[in-house]
Design brief:
Elements (H helix, E strand, L loop, with lengths): L2 H9 L4 E2 L2 H6 L14 E3 L4 H14 L3 E4 L18 E4 L6 E5 L4 E4 L5 H9 L3 E2 L12 H6 L17 E8 L4 E3 L10 H6 L27 E9 L1 E2 L3 E9 L3 H12 L6 E5 H8 L3 H10 L3 E9 L4 H18 L7 E2 L2 E2 H8 L15 E9 L4 H14 L8 E7 L4 E10 L4 H20 L11 H6 L3 H14 L13
Parallel strand pairs: 2-4, 3-4
Antiparallel strand pairs: 1-2, 5-6, 6-10, 7-11, 8-9, 8-10, 12-14, 13-14, 13-18, 15-16, 17-19, 18-19
Helix pairs in contact: 1-3, 8-9, 12-13
């Protein structure tokens, strides 16, 4: 029996694809990772089929690359690194299995997207804190597993929050339920009957297994459902700006506001990134960039079930008093942007085309974790390198997102370019490479090491690399899951 026939036996004839058009669409993304065409694309519908595919891969030594989000993709993690790979597209697994209003939990499959889940949660008075303008077809589970920063740091109790329990098919074909779901009752319905809601991410027993698949780029296991903590949908929601000419002028104020847990949404943007967020096409973006203040803190105030208007009123007064202490002012409107306009954008998935592609058609991001006081140094570094390489520094979008209640900060530089202009592509690639190497020397922590970043990170930490390889041998002994990524 051929490999195609074996896959058809597992997922059905309508869910195995090998046409050149389909294979080409999975062979590349918007990153600088070299393209490589897969062998097949398969689309399973449940955990049994995923398990069957993984067992088949072990028997045939076939590399598997799990994908759950739709295009455009950006980091190279879903582009095969080994020849003869099969793409496991999980987009058919798009059930919202359960919404639990009492415990503010939702349990979903990996194909569920942000555009799908938010309206369903809103009917129950709930919402998810999202990344900054995610794609409408972005998988919620993939986003959380890859630790994309969310906009509300004060409810982020760990860097994996709000992700809780998982069902994982490891690379050896075995299935594990992690966290509170991993009790002796291996039935969700029976757990629900006993009042269990898959809330606790820790365990089972003494190991937090869900951490092994976090930021692993699908190289340890394939997640087939996850429970996620939700927030109460605000009844009153206002947005404010704290503008400044320099980033340094905002740092002390941001530290103070985060320390007292004031506000829900909390992020810092430069004028270029705010223009990309608000503008739909290049001319409008250029005009907006000239009008907007160079830097701005964007902070949302939310009032929920109990005295929502009063809650927002009190928070607004405190926010205004604190910003004035640092010689700054609080505004609901700034040149080029209104608070309602920005809030509407932040609460929705990205428009089409994806907001980072509207300016030049292509974009490459450099992102890492750091502390806020170090960000100005990193900004100066990338501006300096851009000047040397004759890349327009005014085009660089900068996004700073507090995480884990302000303990850490996601720092992101967006480098737009024209993908049809070879000179521009080469210049951007050189800036991306040079800046990444310089930033890590200065202390940038690349916690999600995609593509070339993997060698930069793992060559600096031999002991962790050895340990990760040993763990890989346990859970994926035949190295069928996304080989060639990370240190594998």
């Amino acid at each position: 029996m051929s490999s195609r026939e074996q896959l058809i036996k597992i997922v059905g004839i309508n869910n195995v694809f090998d046409s050149q058009e389909v294979l080409d669409s999975y062979s590349r993304d918007h990153s600088f990772v070299a393209p490589l065409k897969p062998w097949f694309v398969v689309r399973p519908k449940n955990v049994e089929e995923v398990q069957g595919i993984v067992k088949w891969a072990n028997e045939t030594s076939t590399p598997l690359v799990a994908v759950s989000s739709g295009p455009p993709r950006f980091h190279g993690d879903t582009v095969p690194s080994a020849t003869g790979a099969t793409i496991v597209d999980l987009s058919r697994m798009n059930k919202i299995i359960r919404i639990n209003r009492r415990n503010r939990m939702v349990l979903i499959e990996p194909g569920v997207t942000y555009s799908q889940i938010q309206p369903e949660l809103a009917r129950e008075g709930l919402k998810l804190s999202t990344p900054l303008l995610p794609r409408a077809n972005k998988s919620v589970i993939a986003s959380l597993l890859e630790r994309q920063p969310t906009l509300v740091p004060k409810y982020q109790w760990s860097l994996l929050e709000p992700l809780r329990c998982l069902e994982v098919v490891w690379g050896n074909g075995e299935v594990l339920w992690t966290g509170g779901a991993g009790v002796h009752i291996h039935s969700l319905e029976k757990q629900w009957e006993k009042g269990l809601a898959q809330v606790d991410p820790m365990g089972p027993q003494e190991t937090d297994w869900y951490r092994l698949v976090s930021a692993a780029q699908g190289s340890m296991g394939i997640v087939t459902w996850a429970s996620i903590k939700c927030e109460i949908l605000p009844k009153v929601h206002k947005l404010f700006f704290v503008p400044a000419e320099k980033l340094d002028n905002l740092i002390d104020c941001a530290y103070k506001l985060l320390r007292v847990r004031l506000g829900d949404e909390f992020l810092l943007l430069n004028n270029s990134n705010l223009a990309y967020l608000l503008g739909a096409e290049a001319n409008k973006i250029r005009a907006l960039r000239e009008e907007l203040p160079p830097w701005v803190i964007i902070i949302g105030l939310a009032g929920r079930d109990i005295l929502p208007e009063k809650r927002v009123e009190v928070q607004e007064k405190d926010l205004r008093d604190m910003t004035e202490q640092f010689g700054l002012h609080l505004a609901s409107t700034i040149p080029g942007a209104r608070s309602g306009q920005v809030l509407d954008a932040l609460l929705q998935p990205s428009r089409e085309p994806y907001w980072k592609l509207g300016y030049r058609g292509g974009c490459q991001d450099i992102f890492f974790q750091t502390t806020l006081n170090k960000v100005p140094e990193f900004v100066r570094t990338i501006y300096s390198l851009a000047e040397v390489l004759k890349y327009s520094s005014s085009d660089i979008g900068i996004y700073i997102q507090p995480q884990h209640q302000g303990v850490a900060y996601h720092c992101e530089f967006s480098l737009p370019f024209d993908p049809d202009n070879k000179k521009e592509v080469a210049k951007t690639k050189e800036l991306f490479t040079t800046a990444s190497e310089e930033l890590i020397k200065q202390g940038a922590y690349f916690s999600r090491p995609y593509g070339m970043w993997a060698n930069m990170v793992y060559n600096r930490d031999a002991q962790s690399t050895i340990l990760l390889k040993e763990i890989k041998e346990i859970f994926d002994p035949n190295h069928v899951l996304n080989p060639g990524k990370l240190c594998f």
